[in-house]
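Hi P.,

Sorry for the delay on this. The queue was packed all week, but I finally got your sequence through. Input first:
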Amino acid sequence: MDMGVWEWAHLCTWIPDLLNRQQTCCNPYKYVSCCPLFAHIHAMTMELLLLCITLIGAVCCRETFYGDQVLRIRASNEDQLKKLQFLKTLEHLKLDFWLRPSNPEIPVDIRVPFTSLQAVKVYLESRGIEYSIMIKDVQALLDEERAEIEFSRKLERNSKSFNLATYHTLDELTADYGKDSAITSLLNNLDIFLLVVTNPDGYVFTHTNNRLWRKTRSKTAGSNCIGVDPNRNWNAGFGGPGASNNPCSESYHGPRAESEVEVKSVVNFIKGHGNIKAFISIHSYSQLLMFPYGYKCTNIDDYSELDAVAKSAASALTSVYGTAYKVGPICTVIYQASGGSIDWSYDYGIKYSFAFELRDTGYHGFLLPANQIIPTAEETWLALKTIFEHVQDNPY
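Then the structure:
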């Protein structure tokens, strides 16, 4: 039986509501397959319906996180830690581990989809595992962020004096040349290469589809899941502990070391240059300044020197706003993680290899407010300058 005008109109108003309440998706067939009502629709009506959904999908393909919460969980012992590690294997819950379970001293942060909240909380409470709500509604924070971006864009269009909230440009690295003796000396003796975005396709995807996307956008043969964790794809203990062979995992290491063009391009640049003395990787979050190793838990030959440099850099950083950083090898400070960039750079012969995890320690996690961009940059710059000066004064 053909659908009447009212039924068609009613269905077309229902579809956007469905798209708004679930995570919006550009694949129109996702909703066709899960709704039994669609099985009885006349063929011509079905074509119109698919067109309707396709048009909606083209406009509304941003993934949303309504009702999702970020839970901060603290395991009190190894037994509770194992229970959290088991929770990580339950793929049907679609949990997003922002900080994964590694040892009882480090909290575990998990973004829990609204549909899994009750199950996860019952699991934790029934096992006596302590947790708190770090972010009550992920989408609410994202909406605030987007509103601020739109407001800034409006100001930029309407005000001749708007200057992106005084965000600094790379030109400022050279602005004090000839005025500041320390900067002048650094630029006379060092070439500083800045790769602002190492995952450009993933970065664009965070703006168009999924604000919380972290992987690359490559396809994996035999899987519908997209992307590789670029910081598990380096040829340093590749495929070892702390990396996953599951293409759907956020820590998927890829089909082989350096399979990702984003990683291979940096490797080729470093090998082609031939005289890189320091390699610094900057991430978020947790307020950490780390050095190798991550893929194994043994101290490097240069442990004492790199530990001292990292502590000096962290002290310089703290002097600005009092932001405290934890310092040490990756495997000690957070957890064992294979295929990381600074492990590769150190093994390649770049002694001064460091990784930052910037602000904060959990109030916002990956959703750091824009008003913390400048303070974070100011304090981090002093840490970087401390490292640069040590590299300059200690050639090898």
